[in-house]
């Protein structure tokens, strides 16, 4: 029996949060940025504008189509790949940075996959939601204008598997 995917309500990240995520992830032109639950693609598009390559992953075909259209409008379509699939089934082996704005439950469900599939030291950046007892390496508090609110962005790094 196949488990049903954990679905997350679509909520675009505010520009201030996107900037904080890219800063915390220390994204450069050497990176391959994966956004799991990419929505309209804004995080990967901003990473691509900074020279990175990216992969947008979303289970919703409307979000993938929107992300592709937005990447084309931003002139970075050639730097981004698009995958309409469940984040739990995505191949993450080429990621150097993984971006998340999901939910506490989906973050916890993804954590073993991230720890298993990503090389030690890979940066994982999560807006708003922690990763259970996985301690963040760094946290930034973000204040957004629209809507006006405060949230946190967390940086985690994968570690070598325990013997």
Features:
163 residues, alpha/beta, Rossmann fold, 4 helices, 25% strand, globular
List the helices and strands and how they pair.
Blueprint: H1 15-24, E1 32-36, H2 42-49, E2 53-58, H3 61-74, E3 80-84, E4 97-100, H4 104-117, E5 123-127, E6 138-144, E7 149-157
Parallel strand pairs: 1-2, 1-4, 2-3, 4-5
Antiparallel strand pairs: 5-7, 6-7
Helix pairs in contact: 1-2
Walk me through this protein's architecture.
The protein is of the alpha/beta class and 163 residues long. 28% of the residues lie in helices and 25% in strands. Helix 1 (15-24) crosses helix 2. The longest helix is centred in the middle third of the chain and has 14 residues, at 61-74. The mean pLDDT is 94.
Helix content: 25-40%
Whole-number mean pLDDT: 94
CATH homologous superfamily designation: Vaccinia Virus protein VP39
Major sheet characteristics:
7 strands, mixed
Count of DSSP helices?
4
> Under the CATH scheme, which architecture would be assigned?
3-Layer(aba) Sandwich
